[in-house]
């Protein structure tokens, strides 16, 4: 009975091996938004975004219009873009999760759908064994 309580008692982040604190990003600037590392054990990556504004103008926008991808620094291969969404773990900051990543170093790229504008905001990344 105790083991059932323990299994059902967990929610959200199960094992936070590495957290990359909030940092600024700008879309459409030709730069990677962050560099992260995964291991054979900690191979799930969750990217959160907050305080997104359209540039120019600094008009606040919903971060759920954004997408993110990971690109290997060694091979150049990238995941597809994944949209950010509000999940049950984060009612305020939308996120996306990449699982079963090959151990290595990755660039994070955040993408906006606006052709003539860019978006500025903050991103936070957790790398763990699972979420």
Task: Report a brief summary of the structure.
By secondary structure, the chain is mostly beta strands. It has one helix and nine strands; from the N terminus they run H-E-E-E-E-E-E-E-E-E. Strands 1, 3, 4, 7 and 9 form a five-stranded antiparallel β-sheet that branches. Strands 2-8-5-6 form a four-stranded antiparallel β-sheet, with no helix packed on it.
Overview of the molecule:
- This protein has one helix spanning 2-9; strands spanning 16-26, 34-38, 44-55, 59-60, 67-72, 82-83, 95-98, 104-111, 118-128.
- It has one helix and nine strands; from the N terminus they run H-E-E-E-E-E-E-E-E-E.
- The strands form two sheets. Strands 1, 3, 4, 7 and 9 form a five-stranded antiparallel beta sheet that branches.
- The protein is 6% helix and 47% strand.
- The radius of gyration is 16 Å and the shape is globular.
* Multimerization state: single chain
Roughly what fraction of the amino acids lie in strands? over 45%
Instruction: State the low-pLDDT regions, or none.
Output: 1-13
Q: Give the mean pLDDT.
A: 87
CA-based gyration radius:
16 Å
The shape is globular
Order of helices and strands: HEEEEEEEEE
Specify the number of helices: 1
How would a textbook summarize the main sheet? 5 strands, antiparallel
């Amino acid at each position: 009975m105790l083991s059932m309580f323990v299994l059902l008692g967990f929610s959200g982040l199960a094992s936070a091996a590495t957290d990359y604190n909030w940092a600024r990003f700008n879309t459409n600037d030709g730069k990677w938004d962050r560099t992260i590392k995964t291991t054979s054990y900690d191979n799930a990556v969750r990217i959160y975004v907050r305080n997104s504004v359209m540039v120019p103008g600094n008009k606040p926008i919903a971060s759920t219009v954004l997408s993110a991808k990971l690109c290997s620094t060694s091979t150049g291969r990238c995941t597809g873009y994944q949209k950010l969404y509000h999940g049950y773990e984060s009612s305020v900051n939308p996120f996306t999760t990449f699982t079963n990543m090959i151990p290595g170093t990755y660039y994070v790229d955040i993408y906006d759908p606006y052709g003539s504008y860019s978006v500025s905001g903050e991103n936070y990344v957790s790398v763990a064994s699972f979420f």
